[in-house]
From TrEMBL:
Keyword Signal: yes
Signal peptide from the UniProt entry: 1-20
Domain of life: Bacteria
The protein's name: Glycoprotein gp2
Organism encoding this protein: Rhodopirellula islandica
Keywords: Hydrolase, Serine esterase, Signal
Occurrences of domain 4-O-methyl-glucuronoyl methylesterase-like (ranges): 211-360
GO molecular function: carboxylic ester hydrolase activity
Pfam families associated with the record: GCE_fung
Gene3D superfamilies: alpha/beta hydrolase (3.40.50.1820)
Amino acid sequence: MFRALTMLILVAVGSTVALGKEPADTNYDEAKVPAYDLPDPLIDHAGQSVGREEWMMHRRGEVLRMFEESVYGKTPSQELSVRYEVMETDPNALGGRATRKQVAAFFGEDAYRIDILIYLPNAPEAPVAGFVGLNFNGNQTIHSDPGILDQGTGKERGSSASRWQVEEIIDRGYAVATIHRDQVDPDNYRNDFTDGIHPLFYREGQTKPEPTEWGSIGAWGWALSRVLDRLEMEPRVDATRMAVVGHSRLGKAALWAGAQDTRFAMVISNDSGCGGASLYRRCFGERIHHMIKPVGYWFCTNHHQYQHREDALPVDQHMLLALVSPRPLYVASATNDRWADPKGEFLAAKHASLVYELLGQPALTQEDFPAPGQPIHTTIGYHLREGDHDITAYDWEQYLRFADQHLSR
């Protein structure tokens, strides 16, 4: 019983930091960061330098496949049948500022259900841009709005409202859509891929993903694309101007979704850390072997072989960020979130700039790691915020400003 309780606490934040003690081998000393060479995103498997055309024609696909094989696993290409049912609509939500719509998506001959919560601003007449993201604890937690259907997670209505800033998003003229991550794939230490979306894709006799097939991050990313599918049906939404956003492990999922699905017009990673925006090879803060025991199911099984040998990975996370190019990308960090390696997140964004510049987009030109509260807003955005591992009103203000710059018409 004690072991089970302990594991649940670990999984609650994805690391042993939840218990107030970090692994003994955690490095927070820049002087102990090993010397490393990053894989060059612009050198292909044949050892040839690639230009703009070669990147688009074949090198991008090579990089994507390496992430499938060594980090997140391959997402099934099989399309499931889907039926949508509008469960509830209120055109006067949030004091008349928004229309709230709640849609149930039934996949695979109604075998699996995912509930989508959508808020649409009432003020703009033209179709609007917006944000798509997963939530941690149930749709009812993102706002105290009593009309949100309770998903039975046991989490209090509005308890995560600070992480969503729904009124600010609506008042700036953007839509927002969210789903609960556990409806897609339960995020718990017993995850054996039997009670989420995975079984709908198993071939006959299969009981778990193959070593190079998707884990939970892959499933969450897949679901973000399915929300975008539904938004393409909304006449008041311009689905060509939707940003995908995520915090922490859901920031990892947002990055992977944005890398795979180029329909997302902008990608935002908030404190996504190891396996997200930060460089593996720095071996700073959280590392692969810290994740594998409690949350190895986030990744494909093949990823486990790189414990204590990050330098053997054929990729690093600057290459994941480069897969977003030439679309706008925002990476954010927090000063107290050393576990996520803020400097490693900045450096990954900076090294991704090589591909952005190749594709004719201005990227990060700042050489030095910025001080807190000095956001950079080019085609790649970055900021370091004072404070803890969280997504806050300050973060959202930067994302909204960035959206105004890149998603407005």
